[in-house]
Amino acid sequence: MKKGFVVIPIFFALSFFVSIGFVLPSLEQTTQTLSKSKQQVPSSPAAVESAIAKPAFWDLEVGSIFIKGQLVKIGGPNHTVNVKVGETVTFKCTYRMKTPPVGGITQADAKRWGAGNLPFTIRMQVHSTKMGIEDKDLLKDKTLPKFTYEDVINWKKNLQPGVGNAWDDDVYFEWTAGAEYVGNMFISVVYLLDVNHVIPEPDEQNNHINTAGGILNIVVTP
Fold this sequence. Notes:
CATH superfamily of the largest domain: Immunoglobulins
Shape: elongated
CATH architecture of the largest domain: Sandwich
Helix content: 25-40%
Number of helices: 4
Largest sheet: 4 strands, antiparallel
Strand content: 25-35%
Order of helices and strands: HHEEEEHEEHEEEE
Strand order of the largest sheet: 2-1-4-7
């Protein structure tokens, strides 16, 4: 009878160690799987941000207005331009399209903002203070520059990290003076980039010139 009691505990002890032998490899495999899963999830905020394009990227900046031999720009001297009724004048307007500092441009930025298919509309508005004369809107459509992340890599080799890349461009508008403008001594223009605000910008204070302050006054004579 005593021998039977000795065999039973030994049997259960052997079963316990055999079960542990099967469980331990499973636990080790599960631990390795969880460890790999953690490595695949980006834990760094910088890694997450680099996968998302910036909500505002391009900065559109006006340059100057060139009309009848006179260069008009913000901070420059005042100008008066004389135009005869029926005369057509040309406004040559310059502007610049700037990226943020190249050191912070990511692949996601290049894919979103360098596609080359992002249009915007530029407006030149001739404004008269004379009652009964509607503002004359002159419009031109433009497209933002195209670039790839390979271009960005080259920029980073040639530019400081805190400096952005830039493209300069011109746009031309023509306006014919009508007889209704005769006698109005305050005819100004408003030159505005992205009139419909379709391109989100970090700074919209530099995307227009309003000459109503006196930097350009157009006088129409018979």
